[in-house]
């Protein structure tokens, strides 16, 4: 302390410089700390937007994909009890959701993934979709790596209970290049429900498809193999903007095998799928897979 006091009297200019340097250094440290605090305060989710007995928001986080930390987004939809929304093939009624990312910045591509759905009985027949809550994971490809992404989403979805109501909400979220964990657990939980591409030896699998498109009635017969003790087995089919009726199981699971029929209402409906590539999605409590098949 005596040495410091002597320096203050004997060398005021030196001490002035030293004190200024200290102030400058402290300011720099505070600036860095402030920037870190601001970065740490970046939200991983957007505010909820309410609409017709439901609410939606964007979420984000860094998820481990095949050993690589990857920034993903998600479109989270939470519904009041009794309400449901739809899969990309809504079934006999309803409308599929739509996702418009126009207006986003530094976004080259947004690949939206659909968790495996389930079926509902309604007044129009069979509906395919989700109830309670669903998060659609989104793989993001920036135009420029290492720079923030600003997401803008126009999200349109049908919501049904006793009647169906169209909904449109606008969502936005800014994502730094290294978001951190954020909402990764939520996104990962729904990512695990996304059907995986079918591969030989992995169940469930499509073992055969018989097309009777000129039959009376016109139909597709799909044979599937599931784990022998699987429950909740089902088949859903999607072909873009071509209508595909909901499948019907022709019997219970027997030794891991099950057959499904897709019966078309008219010859014109059946003819419309000729030359089209169909996504055959098999689901069960032990996982789900997607097989691509082209109707000849």
If you compute it from the alpha carbons, what radius of gyration comes out, rounded to the nearest whole angstrom? Answer: 27 Å
Largest sheet: 5 strands, antiparallel
Assembly state of the chains shown: single chain
CATH third-level topology of the largest domain: Immunoglobulin-like
Strand content of the residues, in percent?
Answer: 35-45%
Low-confidence stretches: 1-40
Order of helices and strands: HHEEEEEEEEEEEHEEEEEEHEE
User: What count of helical segments does DSSP give?
Assistant: 4
Helix content range? 10-25%
How are strands sequenced across the largest beta sheet? 1-2-3-9-6
The number of distinct structural domains comes to 2
Assign the CATH architecture of the largest domain: Sandwich
Number of strands: 19
CATH superfamily of the largest domain: Thiol:disulfide interchange protein DsbD, N-terminal domain
